[in-house]
Amino acid sequence: MLIDWLVIAVYLVGITIIGVYATRRVKSSSNFFISDRSFGKLMMTFFSFGTGTNTDQAVSVASKTYTSGASGIWYQWLWLFSTPFYWLLAPLFRRMRAVTTADYLLVRYGQSVAVLFALVGMLQLAVNIGVVLKASSAMITAVSGGAISPEIAIFAMTVLFVVYGVSGGLNAAIITDLIQGILTVILSFLILPFALSAVGGMSGLRESIADPEVFSIVAPNEITTLYVIVIAVNGLIGWVTSPYSMAMCGAGRSEYDARVGLVAGHFLKRLCTIAWVLTGLVAIALYAGTTTNPDHVYGLLARDFLPTIAPGLVGLFIASMLAAVMSSCDTFMVSAAALFTENVYKPLIRPGRDERHYILVGRIASVLVVGSGIVIAFGLSSVVAGLELFWIVQAMMGVAIWASFFWRRATAAAAWASTLGGFATWFFTSDVAMVGWSFNDNFAHLLPSFMLFEGRLSLPWQMIIYLVVGLAIMIVVSLVTHAPARERLDRVYETLRTPVEPGEPETAPLTLPPGVAPAPRSVLIEHPDFELMKPTRTSVIGFLGSYAVVGLLIGLFLWILRI
Fold it and tell me: Of 30, 331, 384, 562, which has the fewest CB atoms closer than 10 Å, so is most exposed?
């Protein structure tokens, strides 16, 4: 309908104008990549929510719920138990006083590990962009009844977020995320009340689905308790490798603003996940027995219900979905450009150039990374498969980064060996058709049944194997190689334990401003090789309070399922 197209057009034009307007705030490459570190709790909350909430997540959760039941919630709640740790990690990243995580690794491990992180991070972000575009194109095709092809949808979304992201950098991403975050909440809840009403509410939904296991948050076969625990641990290990984690922590006005914004934004996402699961359950009641593509169920529900309620709602739904895409992909794009420009191009290819040159290179790198994401989008077999690939790639360098926070003995050689060993183990335990290798054809019959799902090595056991191998390699190689210079390590840990003062001037990464004395060393383990800091009162209260919210969310979800 014409009104739907008008709603979409108004949104797209308005958000692009706002994003491009942010261009005037870009004064340097640091400002382009990390903003001016002046955003408060509200802006940081929606920035974290917008960056961490993508259309692929609503699609993948609804898709997995459609095939596996309520346990599909763990395809996004895998980070639920990790969220309280963000309260502790936010000040740690903020205190690095860096633009990218690779800047930190440059000082902690050396140039080679910083480059390794940049390359792995760019791969991770390209996969992330590809998964988001894949999911979004599937939803648009479904909700439009095929009138908008996946190719056109991907092209239109890409052009728009590239325009304002390339122009305004992270400032544009944060400013537009406030608007896009609100629209993403609308996207999450817009269909649900009408779809639930059509099946007679939760009681009618339970009557429509005969199998009670559908309403269990753990499934007896695939998504078991072990599955939930392992993907939660994998997610926590992988979170520190996310290139945009530095932006979500570093763009805040203060450490407390960063903490509140990071945790609140992600809890808002966990709440939206409940709506995605309930939508997937309604799809089971409505489309059971049909040949519906699981990736299309969210869009099909929008197509079937929204036009009957009010004119323009389909347009609002598509605009909200575009908001979720653009609020994530713009940050992914800028983060990838920062990795290449700050950690590969500037130190290794063209050092000593002016800021305008590096901003231009960053903008060119942004476009190239997005191009890689488009290629990946068309190569993925499904949204769920793409999401699982992202989980794996994200975790590969996590062991090396976690070790760097707390263990002085961790070395650059071990970081390389652990990361490459993890990738090699994942490759070995996978089926890779393009090279003719199948782990399951050769070894699955030798494994105990509890490690298998449908005759193949299950995802949680594959994660356990590559994480254990990566950790073992990290420890062994660190112990047999030379420890980093003590002066370098002192600089790192003095900076990490020293809070960022309000209005503190920008400095080189891992460098305290003139006149700022390092905070005294106060550790939980009195050993010269360990730097596990004693938590402050604020850290303990916030951490425990966050876990209370985790309990409330799980209780709320279980209560809804039993209504």
Answer: 562
